[in-house]
Amino acid sequence: MLTVDFSRFPLAPGDRVLDLGCGAGRHAFECYRRGAQVVALDQNGEEIREVAKWFAAMEEAGEAPAGASATAMEGDALNLPFPDDSFDVVIISEVMEHIPDDKGVLAEMVRVLRPGGRIAVTVPRYGPEKVCWALSDAYHEVEGGHIRIYRGDELLGKMREAGLEPYGTHHAHGLHSPYWWLKCAFGVDNDKALLVQAYHKLLVWDIMKKPLATRLAERALNPVIGKSFVVYATKPHLPQAAAAEPATTEAQKPAPGAKSGAKAPAKTASKTASKAPAQRASKASAKPSAGAAK
Q1: What's the predicted TM-score (pTM) here?
Q2: Could you give the count of Cα atoms lying within 13 Å of 276 in the half-sphere of its Cβ?
């Protein structure tokens, strides 16, 4: 189940992709199938080992085209082990709502993304998430759980502050919001509730079969109760440095009393290259949410 819509966020074969906080690897696998050079990174070592096994199985089955590559590794989103401008594409899906220093994570993603590169950010949507929080404290008050609920304009503002230029948004997983409301109403850890079980079977059937009826239903529900909010953005190119030009000033004229031909040192004005927008550190507010399953 993909949250990022690759028809709106196209990949080219050979693109260097970072799936940050990859979880079970769903977006990393899709990028690998599309011929990218993928790095799937997560702090959960157990999940990373599983992702590495799936990458190996995909390679053996010939699911990835020639030239594609895939690496799974543990890492810290606030201290990425990559040089500046390492990636053409960065994806971070249903992760930022877990991290206190979300601005620090944005700064790291912008650092490793090349100028002109693209980024996809997905978080749980404000409205459906508020319903979950109202129905159940256990839904969000767990270690490593969601610590904030983003409003759309808040997330867009933070991305712009980090130096990104958003170019598109949409909502996803409209069929999943009612499932999470049922989970919260009957108990997040209660998998025996009949309505929860029945709805879960519906979601599995939808994911596996993709019938037209549920595809049309989700398309209609996404703008209203879509579980995830998705933003696509680019990292702008740096402005070219303006050529330095000498400035004619009074100081270039002969100084009083100076011998013929002797001139005072000429002053020159030069323009310096504009620097990329500085990544601003700021306090991260908190409150979690459980978005669409990874």
Answers
A1: 0.80
A2: 21
- Of 93, 113, 111, the residue nearest 103 (C-alpha): 111
Task: Break the chain down into helix, strand, coil percent, rounded to 5.
Answer: 35, 20, 45
Q: 126-135 and 176-186 are packed helices; what angle lies between their axes, rounded to 10 degrees?
A: 10
- The first and second tokens of residue 83, run together, are 């040089």
What's the CA gap between 167 and 281, in Å, rounded?
Answer: 24
Give residue 286's Cα distance to chain centre.
18
**Residues 204, 205, 210, 215, CA torsion sign:** negative
pLDDT in tens, 162-214: 999 999 999 999 999 999 999 999 999 998 999 999 999 999 999 999 999 99
Helix (H, G, I), strand (E, B) or coil at 160: helix
Amino acid letter for position 206: D
